[in-house]
Amino acid sequence: MSSCLVAPPWPCSSMAEVRQHHSLLLRLGLSTDNYAMSRILTFCSLSNHGDINYALKLFTTLPNPDTFVYNTLFKAFFICDSPSLSLLFYSHMLQRSLTPNSFTFPSLVRACKLQQEVKQLHAHVLKFGFGADTFTLNNLIHAYFAFGSLDDARRVFYTIPNPNVVSWTSLVSGYSQLGLVDEAFHVFELMPSKNGVSWNAMIACFVKNNRFREAFDLFRKMRVEEVEVDRFVAATMLSACTGVGALEQGKWIHGCVERNGIVLDSKLGTAIVDMYCKCGCLDKAFRVFCRLEVKGASSWNCMIGGFAMHGRGEDAIRLFREMEEEGVVVPDDITFVNVLTACAHSGLVEEGFFYFRYMVDVHGIEPNKEHYGCMVDLLARAGRLEEAKKVIYEMPMSPDAAVLGALLGACRIHGNLVLGEEVGKRVIELDPGNSGRYVTLGNIYARCGKWEQVAGVRKLMNDRGVKKEPGFSMIEMEGMVNEFVAGGRDHPLAEAIYAKVHEMLEAIRVVGYVPDTDDVLHDLVEEEKENPLFYHSEKLAIAYGLLKTKRGETLRVTKNLRVCKDCHQASKLISKVYDCDIIIRDRNRFHHFSNGECSCKDYW
DNA sequence: TTAGGGTTAG
To answer: Key word Repeat present in the record (predicted)?
Structure first.
């Protein structure tokens, strides 16, 4: 009997259906027919509703599997990330004297976990005559880039007789992965033809490397060329808006998703939620979150993290409980990082301890360094420095700079010179290229009036060639992102902005503002040291915001570093005097200033 | 007679 007569209708939708067809085929005596069995195998191996173990069992019953059967398994092994099985089966295939075809190598090379394996397979690609096969070579480019082998990847590209748009885009995204943004852009401009994927790869490259302005510019150009905004570009641009806190543009992309009827899958939905969280619109984020039809673990994690960042610890915990009750997705390690962060940022020490144990006892998740870091942060922020030290001492792995950094940060908050000095020196040795560590130690010294030590830290930085990461603040106005650096005068309205800063400072002095120089790593004499403080980037951004908005409107500022104590105090008073809400997102969290108070309750 | 590649959130 011809096997095509009994091929099951395609596609199957469940394993139950597949099992029925399988038993039918067995009854018809087709158990050794590769073609008939391949249809079953393909569903089990590749469908979301399949079952790879069933596929493997079926495979063992085939007396003479052919190349097609092997190719199907290679693809499955690539998808489920089982590189060792791929290579094992490949050698079986060769032992059976089966010849690879053009479908064999793409999945095989992509599954490799060692560069050496890619090289060996590359040799086989040439030996079996696929040295001019575009599909195979495109995948080799990918495989080489995954190991950072730029030269190998490029060499492969130049051997492709007729590189197609996929070849070119693979090159762009490879450069992007390696952080070679200018090279990626150069390739992008050389491309003979581009499609939506290519545009997205290039925009994503800018976003990933924090070159947001260029991402926005390229997106604009893409729209001028009438390239359709699909779910990928939308997600990438949302991430750009998230990066700079560009709420208006983020809203526009969200609207675009709705207008174009783009289906909200879990990733895109999460990107929208994340954008609203990180642009300071927590309630809007929550409304979108609640309406998401597909919520992955990341969607929950993102929303819980959003509450955490905004200092709404109780809401974060409540949402975590809902996640458990709904029971569709299980909490993972990131969920608990966010729950613990929420506790730390809201001073919920006992709750933090509870969930740390709960994670292990109920969910069987062993704490990793990040979880220990959260516990150190939780205790140390609350002033329980000795207990924080004990956590570090007792953790099973050696503490890294991030864990010790949490303790160091708390020493700064609580002005603990002795511990701060000890921890600060250790952190700097663990993370010598990170300017933030030096600055924090310097601030601890400065707060205690230890100017000689402040100078010592500064000298150490200079000697090692470590530059202080320049602080900048961004504020979006009329759809444009305005960027300010401390003391900068590049803005076209610089004069008016500085005049506004002076007006602001005068106005808050009346209600008791006294400059706070604790956080300034400086070498100026006492009476001069107020000045640089007045022109910190967040003050310039706020002044610009006040200039451009009506009284009472909310100002949203994004800062790349932690907001300093003086700017924090000044922002509180500005919110009161100017009767406006100011929302500042700093490196760690959000500060909502309203009527002279901050949502962080000065606990940051 | 069976099938492919490059892009997106946390």
So the answer is: yes
Position A480 scores a pLDDT of 86
Same domain (yes/no): A543, A482: yes
User: Do residues A390 and A482 both lie within one domain?
Assistant: no
CB A464 within 8 A of CB A456: no
A383 with A458, same domain: the answer is yes
Question: Same domain for A336 and A403?
Answer: no
Instruction: Give, in Å, how far the C1' of B9 lies from the CA of A238.
Output: 9
Q: Are residues A588 and A484 in the same domain?
A: yes
- A45 CB neighbours strand B below 7 A: no
Q: Is the CB of A4 under 7 A from strand B?
A: yes
Which nucleotide C1' is nearest A66 CA?
A: B2
A295 beta carbon to strand B: under 7 Å: no
Lowest mean pLDDT among A39-48, A485-494, A522-531, A535-544: A522-531
* Distance (Å, whole) CA A163 – CA A198: 14
Domain boundary among A469, A488, A518: A469
Out of A166-170, A208-212, A479-483, A488-492, least confident range: A479-483
Instruction: Name the closest nucleotide to A270, judged by C1' and CA.
Output: B9
A478 SS3 class: coil
Residue nearest to nucleotide B5 (CA to C1'): A135
Residues A478-490, mean pLDDT to the nearest whole number: 90
pLDDT band at A526 (very low <50, low <70, confident <90, very high): very low
Q: What is the dihedral of CA A350, A352, A355, A356, to 10 degrees?
A: -110
Residue ranges making up the domain that contains A356: 310-366
Question: CA of A35 vs C1' of B2, distance in Å?
Answer: 7
- The candidate with the shortest Cα–Cα distance to A110, out of A139, A135, A86, is A139
Measure, in angstroms, how far nucleotide B6 C1' is from residue A138 CA: 8
Residue pair A239/A262 in contact (Cβ under 8 Å)? The answer is: no
- Asked if the structure places residue A408 within a domain, the reply is yes
Residues A399 and A458 in one domain: yes
A56 belongs to a structural domain: no
Provide the CA A528 to C1' B3 distance, Å, integer: 73
Please tell me which residue lies nearest to nucleotide B2, judged from CA to C1'. Answer: A35
CA A131 and chain centroid, separation:
37
Using DSSP, state whether A475 is helix, strand or coil. Answer: strand
Number of domains in chain A: 3
Q: Which residues 58-87 of chain A have a CB under 7 Å from nucleic chain B?
A: 66-68, 71-72
Are residue A435 and residue A529 in the same domain, yes or no?
Answer: no
On the question of pLDDT at A436 being above 50, the answer is yes
Q: Are residues A451 and A477 in the same domain?
A: no
So what's the pLDDT on residue A338? 97
* Domain termination residue (choose one: A439, A469, A499): A469
Position A180, amino acid:
L
Q: Distance (Å) from CA A562 to C1' B10?
A: 22
Q: Which amino acid is at A171?
A: L
